[in-house]
Amino acid sequence: MDEEALLKQFAAQFAHGPDDADDTDAAAAAQGADSTANQVADDADQSPATFDTQQFLNGLDAIFDRHTAATEAGPYLEQAMVDAENAGDEAGLLTVLNETMGFYRSQGRHKENQWIVQRALELAARMGLTTGTSEAWATTLINCATSMRAAKQYDQAEDLYHQAQSVCRHSLAPTDRRLAALHNNLSMLYSETNRPDKAELELREALRIIEASSVNPDADIDVSSSHTNLALTLLTEHKLEDAHWHAAKALEIYRTGHLEHSAHYASALAGFAQVCFAERRYADAVTGYRHALAVIEECYGKDTDYWRITADNLRQAEEAAAQAGVTVDNAGVAGDAGALPQSGSWLPNSPAQGKTGANAASSPSTVSVSTGSAGAAEAVSACPVSGLKLARAFWTQMGKPMIAAKYPQYAGRIAAGLVGHGSECYGFDDAYSQDHDFGPRFCLWLTDEDYAAIGEQLEADYEALPRKFSVDAQGRVTFEAHARSDASGAFPSAGAGSPVTPRAQGANRRDGVFRIGDFFESITGYHTAPAQTAPHEWLMLQESTLAAATNGEVFADPTGLFSKTRQGFKNMPDDVRLALISKRLGMIAQAGQYNLPRSLKRGDGAAAWLSIHEFVQATASLVFLVNVPMVVGYMPYYKWQFAALRKLSGSMFALLPNVGEQLETVMRLSSAACYGGAGFGEGSKGAAPAIEKINDIVEQIAVDIVKELKREHLTTSGETFLEWQRPYVEDHIASDDPVLKSL
Length: 743
Prior knowledge:
The structure is a single chain. This protein is mainly alpha-helical. Helices cover 59% and strands 4% of the residues. The strands form two sheets. The chain has a four-stranded mixed β-sheet, sandwiched between helices. The longest helix is centred in the last third of the chain and has 28 residues, at 574-601. It is globular, with a radius of gyration of 28 Å. 48% of the residues are buried.
């Protein structure tokens, strides 16, 4: 049996329920994010109603109660969206969108859910929720993030989860089960992106909240589910003894509460079976899988992926038992819980016994990387991990312990991460990026008050952190923690990183200790984002500038202040976004549809070349603006513009997904089109074929853009000369500020 693959199956399937990724999340059974839409309606002003939110929710509940959701829920939700929109009830519409996200996710309708996620975020922004800390905004963020995670759009999901965390700190009580659901969902994301250590931390926090909020933790299904989730994560870290204890505790809770006939009992049974399999307790694994199958068949039937995956795992466990010469008693297959050994008697093997396959026989090889010696450029260029991964490891292994040891009173106030200028902040760095400004680094962000107190000393301690590390065959980074030089606990210096260019030194440094406001001002010119009512200031900010201020990752932000400031720059006012879309439509029309063909006809290759440049820039920007920067980020500066466009286009949620490839074709053909001549160009046929192809692509892009504008209800016109689409788009700008309107 492939243990790692099986662990992933269980992490995705059993611990979190068969029908919905959150069914057995720690908080979902009582107050899951999908069922909090009532708060949405309560927190926002509603128009005089012809749409009854409570009646809508009651009707939806009735559909689920009679088990007809598969055929009835979709049409019901779609009609409710229309009804709420026609009634002008924005709060009611947001409620419907939140419920729809959960249903589409449970049905695997991820492509359709893209429109719902985007629409919910845009609606929340229009309602003014994004600048506050309401439960409505927290709920929407969690639902959007979970939908993105279910669709494996992990970068967007993680960003939305972190935004939700920031809001929840202010809007929810410390024991609110929705907080536990958020931690549990984050743990799933970390598990799915191979960060089990972070998944474990999130699950332990979820378990703490659930136990604190429970009337009887010893008989609470949500507590049991949290134990199962934690057991599976610990298993991926090869912490067999801890995994065994938590898996056994989950079963004990079901028995104490006499909850064995709950559908979610199968999750606990299968989770324990997986632990037993890892421990080579094959008889117990087979028994656990058989009981899980019996519960699944009773509650869901055999025609489900849930049943098929469990049956396949059972088959593999039976084969392993047979190969080991273990006889398995067939008793108890019908689901008699008493046939399973009591949890106290299921003692785990030692960690050495629990390892299987290659991991038990050999230790991983490592690649040592030194960043403090002559010839460092060659050493660093061999670093096999990305700058962001290196930064996170440097923070986790060296930075965080240093702060805990030397600044314990500030540990809960310092934010850390890597954001700003540099290829690694966009996640696009490679071996060619490592010859300068590369190495172990991160940023520490402080309030003005804290910076005045500890900023200079913290910077000195940061610079003194050891930077020698190794990378093993699995890509795990290990920093060499040198012996401390004295009783003060100071860390000795290990030298500098790769060659640092002048643009990354002094006031322009890209890592170290910063005041929060100063950090953002160094990138954007603003301590905090311009006000939502200051469109002229937003329009002065380049998209690439906003991209640099909002890229990267935040590793820790205990107070949420840094993330809140960063989120302010992500939250471009929708009126500004629409104004920029209008401007891009104008440039696409002028450069691509009008001046490009005229320049080519008159043989002015230079003018045609520049027209293509303007057309490509405007079109690429339009793609990001249509996809909404809050969701997908901003278009970065020219060097990484197409790397970001390819990444966006590869998402199943992307709007205008084919445009990036079409633009690259235009650029590839531009030389032949602009300077081909009679005997030059593709196939020696001269410029004509390239010119024809480029003109066709430009017009096809215009057609695709119009279709998208119609789908977004930003136009009712089919006119494909995009200049004439601008008035339709600008009709949706609510502000009367003339800076937002074209001449």
